[in-house]
Amino acid sequence: MGDNSPSYTVDEALVVMGFGNFQILVLAYAGMGWVSEAMEMMLLSFVGPAVQSKWGLSSGEESLITSTVFAGMLIGAYSWGIVSDKHGRRKGFLITAMVTAMAGFLSAFSPNYIFLIVLRCLVGIGLGGGPVLSSWFLEFIPAPNRGTWMVVFSAFWTLGTIFEASLAWFVMPTLGWRWLLALSSLPSSLLLLFYKVAPESPRYLCLKGRTTDAVNILEKIARMNGSKLPVGTLVADHQIELHKIDNALEDTHLLSPRRIEDVPPDKMDSTVGGISSLLMLLSPKLVKSTLLLWIVFFGNAFSYYGLVLLTSELSAGHSKCMPHKLQSEKSQNVSYRDVFITSFAELPGLFLAAATVDKLGRKFSMSAMFFLSCIFLLPLAFHQPEGLTTWLLFGARICITATFTVVYIYAPEIYPTSIRTTGVGIASSVGRIGGILCPLVAVSLVHGCHQTASVLLFVTVALISGVCVLLFPFETKGRDLKDSVSQNRVTP
């Protein structure tokens, strides 16, 4: 890379070309995957009570239907992150879409409880690839408006939850839970249908040394957006970093004037395996961000999915303690109206995230919403009228949706391209542990007449998560994405 030869990075090219038709198509494709994941998660609040009534399950067995999905997601989120960092984003979400679509459809034909548990675990493994799609989409967005467009991407999750609540309202009373499972698996099939036209991330290709392929995709973006690429040669961020280090060393005469050879991209930290990538996430430059991010993902998943399950449980007659026999009779009477109403809480949650994420920053947006959710949840520690309960859950769902949206923007931004999907995938896996545990709280404690303890635990988790957000070492608003760990700078 000569001193006088013009060059540009992927970030600089994306800024020049802007957000246009190409990114809209990428948004639609990635968004369909987000709709699929939201539908598969949302249906758990309907299928659990229905299967419990049909097969005479205990509350623990009902909770296991949800927990096993999260257990699968824990495995999948870690595995698919490593696969996509090593073999490409496209291969990562191809495998996840295949697993989700097939296992989701087959679970509708489960002859017994064991088959249902196994197939829903496989669905969870497929759903664990969600972070791959979000990271893939993120790498096509210009830095200045990355936060806003990631909020728009998150809107597909809300669309999926609302659509699933509507589908359940019409399908469950007439056709039953098997039809709901089968119909909910269809969006994953659309990812397979349009897979051939989905492009690989140019940032990933550039990091792997496939500069020509990266340029071809950038040229396609320019054509579709009606713009032009910057003048010069495409270079990876790590090459610029090495060049700057080389010049600094020569200027200070700390080393001989011999030029430091550029390390080939495919020999850098992009080749790390599972254990090596985990060690890199826990390296001195990233360990604080990684550990805090794990706690926040745990708190987000625990709170979000707990609120979804609490809505169906409290509306099914468990908000007041009653004999076990009466609870079993009422467990199938989920108020689809209440679930539908609280699902719409995600819309103002998205608007709130969009209004604050690029103006106030990621950290302030997340922490404020966590603390506000505690205020909405506290009154639920005591029995409230049904209408007030619904609206308190509505308010808490707004806040947790906003925090979930922003953390999925912040998480990919703090990690370099070489371990981005691995880092987000592992954080998402930790979040799935929260998803595994929350049914035991939202279902079992409420069934056991311990609503106060259940709600106070949710409040505590949200409060700790909010404090951890304040402790994050840096803000990512407006920052360029980095390619390697050495480029991460802790700046306020």
From TrEMBL:
The keyword Transport is annotated on this UniProt entry: yes
Chain segments annotated as transmembrane: 12-35, 63-80, 92-109, 115-138, 150-171, 177-195, 291-310, 339-357, 364-382, 388-411, 423-447, 453-474
SUPFAM superfamilies: MFS general substrate transporter
Record-annotated Major facilitator superfamily (MFS) profile domain positions: 26-477
Any one annotated GO CC term: membrane
Top-rank lineage group of the source organism: Eukaryota
Subcellular location: Membrane
Keyword Membrane recorded: yes
Annotated keywords: Membrane, Transmembrane, Transmembrane helix, Transport
A UniProt-annotated Pfam family: Sugar_tr
Membrane topology label: Multi-pass membrane protein
GO MF terms held by the record: transmembrane transporter activity
Entry-linked PANTHER family: MAJOR FACILITATOR, SUGAR TRANSPORTER, MAJOR FACILITATOR SUPERFAMILY, SYNAPTIC VESICLE GLYCOPROTEIN 2
Descriptive protein name: Organic cation/carnitine transporter 7
Organism: Quillaja saponaria
